[in-house]
Amino acid sequence: MVPSPIEDDDERRAAVNELHDHLAATAELSIDRAANRWIGEAEALAADLLKAPNEPELVRKRATQTAALLDEVDDTGDSTANEHVTAAARIADQLRGE
Predict the structure, then answer these.
(1) How far apart are alpha carbons 40 and 51 in whole angstroms?
(2) Could you tell me if residue 8 is left (phi over 0), alpha (psi between -120 and 50 degrees) or otherwise beta?
(3) H helices of 1-98, where?
(4) Exposure winner among 16, 27, 38, 69, fewest CB in 10 A?
(5) For the segment 30-82, what is each residue's pLDDT rounded down to a tens digit?
(6) Structural contact between residues 13 and 59, judged by C-beta atoms closer than 8 angstroms
(7) Separation CA 58–CA 80 (nearest Å)
(8) How many CB atoms sit inside 10 A of residue 66's CB?
(9) pLDDT for 4
(10) Are 6 and 48 contacting, i.e. CB atoms less than 8 angstroms apart?
């Protein structure tokens, strides 16, 4: 099932916050080193989005970059982290309109 894109400003801002929260939640978990690097970069992009203007095109661009980083994560080695990564990837897809 393809998630529907987020068009509403308030929904977009809430999704950005949720995206960041999922990625930040992995920070304290014991995860694979390579996965941690990709997730860390994705989290940095999401953190930038928290402070950035809520402009649809900017959010789409950063969400696309975030999704690309998360695509590099095969397995974190931690089931909870895997769930957070999956949820974050789904939100990134919604934010980028896919």
Answers:
(1) 17
(2) beta
(3) 9-24, 33-51, 56-71, 79-96
(4) 27
(5) 999 999 999 999 999 999 999 999 899 999 999 999 999 999 999 999 999 99
(6) no
(7) 30
(8) 29
(9) 66
(10) no
Using CA atoms, how far residue 71 sits from 7, 9, 11, in Å, is 23, 26, 24
pLDDT for 44 equals 96
Q: Could you tell me if 90 and 6 are in contact, meaning their C-beta atoms sit under 8 angstroms apart?
A: no
Q: 25: Cβ–Cβ under 8 A, 6 or more apart, which residues?
A: 80, 84
**pLDDT tens-digit map of 69-80:** 999 999 999 999
pTM beyond cutoff 0.85: yes
Enter the tokens of residue 60: 């789409």
Determine contact, residues 45/62, Cβ cutoff 8 Å.
Answer: yes
Dihedral angle sign, alpha carbons of residues 31, 32, 33, 35: negative
Main-chain phi, psi angles of 4, to 5 degrees: -80, 145
